[in-house]
Amino acid sequence: MEKIIVGDHTSEAAWANPVEGAHWLRDWRVGEWLTGPVTPLFVSLLLPKLAESRENWGLGVIPWKGMAKRSLIAKLPWYMTINGYLYCRTDLKMIQAVVYTAHFTLRSMIKPGWYADWLTKAEPLFDGLLAELCERPVTDLTTDELIERINTLTVYVAEWWHPLAYSGIDVFYLRFVYDRFVKEPQFSPQTLLFGYPGPLVDMQQSAWEIAEQIKKLGLGDDLEGAIAHPDVVPMVDRYYASYGHLVDSIDPVHSVLRENPQRLIAAVKGFVSGEVQEPARRHRRTAAKRKAATDSALGKVSGPGGVLFRNILKFAQNLAASRERVAWNFQKGFGELRPALLELGDRLAANGKLERADQLFFLNWEEVSASLADGQSNFSTLADERREIWQTQQRLASPPRIPAVEDPTWSSQGPLPTGLSVERTLVGGGASAGLVTGRARVAHTPAEADELQQGEILIAHATTPAMNSAISRAAAIVADVGGMVTHSSLIAREFGIPAVIGTEVATHVIKTGMELEVDGDKGVVRIL
Predict the structure, then answer these.
(1) Which residue in 203, 261, 274 sits closest to 233, CA to CA?
(2) pTM for the full predicted model
(3) Residue 84 contacts by C-beta under 8 Å, 6 or more apart in sequence?
(4) Do residues 484 and 172 make contact, with C-beta atoms less than 8 angstroms apart?
(5) Which of the chain's termini has less CB crowding within 10 Å, N or C?
(6) Domains of the chain and CATH, by start
(7) Cα 190 from Cα 192, distance rounded (Å)
(8) Closest to 483 (Cα-Cα) out of 424, 426, 432
(9) What are phi and psi of 513, to 5 degrees?
(10) Neighbours of 60 (CB within 10 A)
(11) Which strand (E) or helix (H) includes residue 385?
């Protein structure tokens, strides 16, 4: 059993199941947007609102007409934290799940474009609300106004969690009808979802344009100096204004993109060297693959099955074109929330309640409120103790499942990961089509992902939007966790590269430098 050592105190890191008969996955649902153990502030401020949004299909900020309220199909409690790690429950309320599936099918048949139509109306509404809320700089707010902004931003980000977490059942439906009704298929069904335009492609194109300007000025040998050149700075400012809110993690203890200039330098470096092609060109090629696969499939269906396939295809493609925009909006609030929290931390430090602003993340929200009301208490020692625990938790080997995968009751939850077989093969979910071979690059953090070279295969616990520049150089993605509509899957299909997700052990058994074969159609990774 692992030890948690803080100062002179030692405790055991136990991973017992808190609910008899329940099944839990680490870094699933909300957890796919986390990068390790969570902080007390995340657990007390953000997680309750994210949970409320999922349980109630939104919080009413942006009108959502897709489902009835209280449609949560997971059994309660549906999430927990243990030794700092978030786990979500996989056990379903079967009656609600059947109703949900039937409702989904009817909506996709009657109005395949309903999700895209909703998003078209929701985005400008949200942008207006966010702009109005954040019109004044945080430094100009009174402390009461700052607290109100933080609470409102928490609601705003949670509001987008519901449509972001909207089930990937459309992808499974698409696979089912494709395999059943498309005669003699020439393409993988995943290719039907390749290469949709979106903000991530625009972001890469913006970095490419910065690189082109740097090359034009002859500054390619000094990229740090180049991005500070007067003829480049306006382009860099526009880049951060549009994309600086992207997160490493939805726990605000972690920085956002605008705080890490090395990420932009790493992205620009590949374009300056010519190793990475223009994103717009790559996108056109990937979109052409989708069109060819779509035309081929539509030409091979007929009758009632063909009608069903056409409607499911239209709905799935509408979702594919929309989901990355939803993720984009989800992160906008975090780009405003972290500066507001740091400003509050600065004020507590100035008043002697903390020694440093970032200690705020290791208090719970109730303690923050108490520190504002109490003129005497200093919370620095408590915050530092919790930070030390958090840092220790990062080194724990947290299990991907509770109970362990060997527990026979997991058989009722669907296919299980096989681990590394004697044939040196990993099996996961095939999330994006294609077959490639290449050198592995294991990345546990976005900074490690920046070291990825052109044509390498990215091995990660999960990918985050902060890794997108690195992913543009990847030949394929292999992830421990994820589903058909998580970031690893979406970005792989957007870039048209193979992806295998949900292996649970890839980062543990694959080492940087290994030669791999990744089959995104079959969901198989072979160590060569």
Answers:
(1) 261
(2) 0.90
(3) 36, 37, 38, 389, 390, 393, 396
(4) yes
(5) N
(6) 2-167+326-393 (no CATH), 170-318 (no CATH), 413-527 (3.50.30.10)
(7) 5
(8) 432
(9) 105, -20
(10) 12
(11) helix 380-393
Tokens encoding 240: 């951060």
Tokens representing 59 are 């919080």
Q: Which residue has the tokens 């299980």?
A: 416
Residue-wise pLDDT tens for the chain (528 aa)?
444 444 444 446 789 998 999 999 887 767 778 888 999 999 999 999 998 888 887 888 887 655 444 456 788 898 999 999 999 898 888 777 777 667 766 776 777 788 788 888 899 999 999 999 999 999 999 999 999 999 999 999 999 887 776 656 778 888 889 999 998 889 999 899 998 888 888 999 999 999 999 999 999 999 999 999 999 999 999 999 999 999 989 999 999 999 999 889 988 998 998 878 899 999 999 999 999 999 999 999 999 999 989 988 998 898 888 888 888 899 999 999 999 999 999 999 999 999 999 999 999 999 998 888 876 678 999 999 999 999 999 988 888 889 988 888 888 776 666 665 556 889 888 989 999 999 999 998 888 998 999 999 999 998 887 788 889 899 999 999 887 778 888 889 888 999 999 888 899 899 999 999 999 999 999 999
Phi, psi of 265 (to 5 degrees): -60, -40
Classified as helix, coil or strand, 25 is: strand
Nearest to 363 by CA among 353, 351, 373: 353
Record the tokens describing residue 386, joined without a space.
């919790």
DSSP string, 404-465: -TTSGGGGGGS-----S-TTSEEE-EEEE--EEEEEEEEESSHHHHTTPPTTPEEEESS--G
**Two tokens, residue 522:** 């079959």
Query: Distance (Å, rounded) from C-alpha 162 to C-alpha 171?
Result: 18
Residue with tokens 């020692």: 381
